[in-house]
Structure formats: structure tokens, C-alpha cells
Design brief:
The protein is α/β, with parallel strands linked by helices. Helices cover about 35% and strands about 30% of the residues. It has one domain: Rossmann fold. It contains 7 helices and 10 strands. Strand 7, helix 6 and strand 8 form a beta-alpha-beta unit.
Length: about 220
Amino acid sequence: MSEPILTATGIRKSYSLGRRSLDVLRGVDLTARRGEFVALRGSSGAGKSTLLHLLGGLDRPDCGDIRVCGFDLSKLSTTSLTEFRNRRLGFIFQAYHLLPELDAVENAALPARMARVPATQAQAKAEDLLKRVGLGERFEHRPYELSGGEQQRVAIARCLINDPEVIFADEPTGNLDTKTGAEVLELLLSLRAERGTTLIIATHDPAVAARAERVVNLVDGLVA
């Protein structure tokens, strides 16, 4: 069994709603091994997306410890955490989050450019990844010129551009029809198998959960 690449202990997160506090996570423990595929399941409001954002360093917990790739995220400054996310982690979102003014290559290359990779090198890698995800004829297309499945493939290429060790995906098939969702899932699984990347997906889709090595169910902010 491979060593843990991610360990979360006692994770709590609350949000203020006017005069009251909403406890979203109430003491979650989670471990993921290097190369493992973990699915996070639970009803809406169970805390899946919140936990995913905390594990990926997009937000900070109220208390608890998170270690990813050997780093204690609580010890990283805001700047260091941003650089760590950019260089070591990958993110895929249900709503794609592509920049509308950029074409497919520019969107896919953006994290590499933020990591100060030379423009020609970043573009070449983005084009190679877009070919890998079946978009070799869509380099100059902007998001509004692409279908939902094509936009998600651009988002996957963008996620992979800096060779992440862990990929966090929040409902990556949620906005796609069944056929396109299955194609996107197969693409993620084949890329994971090829690269040995840890894959953590928050999903409502039973077809996605069925392919995971391990399913973690969240109920009322706790691991069931």
C-alpha cells in the first residue's frame, strides 16, 4: 500500500448567516494514498464542496490539520499557498471556470504562465494536452464556441498543465449529459492511470462513485 499523500484530521468549518452560524463540517478525518481515486458523496449541503476546497487549499478550516504532498497547509502563507496550489495541485469544477476572452490554448496554458513557464513552452504543452483530450481542432475556439463537454476537456487540460500530484474535481460531470459525462470520466481515469495522480472527486453521480477505489460518504458534516 502506497503512502498517504493527503491527511486531514478534525476538520471543522462554519459560516456566519446573519445572527446564526452554519456548521458545515463538524470534525472530518480523511486520508488518501498516492495514486488513489476517492469519491466524496453526500446530499446537497452535506459539505462535499466545502471539504474539497479545504483539502485543496482554496479555503482554510476553522480548526483541524491538513497535510498535502508533505506540506502542512496551515503553515503556508497566502502567497506560498497560492504557489503550492499552482505547482502541485489541479482543480476541475462543475462550471468549468474558463476565461471567456481566452481561447482554448490560452485557457489551458494559464496555470503554466502563472508558474512563469516561458510562453512558447506553455503553449506547446497546452496544445499537446488539448490534442490528448480530443480538442486538436479547437485551439482557437473561445468557451462560447465550445460545447459543455468540450469546455470540460479544456478545463481538464488546464488542470494537467503543471503535472499536479493531486487532482480535486467538484462535480466534473454534473453539467454534462450521460454520454459526455462517461467520456469525461474515462478520460480522467486514463490520465490518472498513466500519471499515477491522486484523484478526489465530489459527486452525486453514482456512475462516478462506482468507479472509485473508495467512497467517503458525508452526512451532516461528518464522515458516515
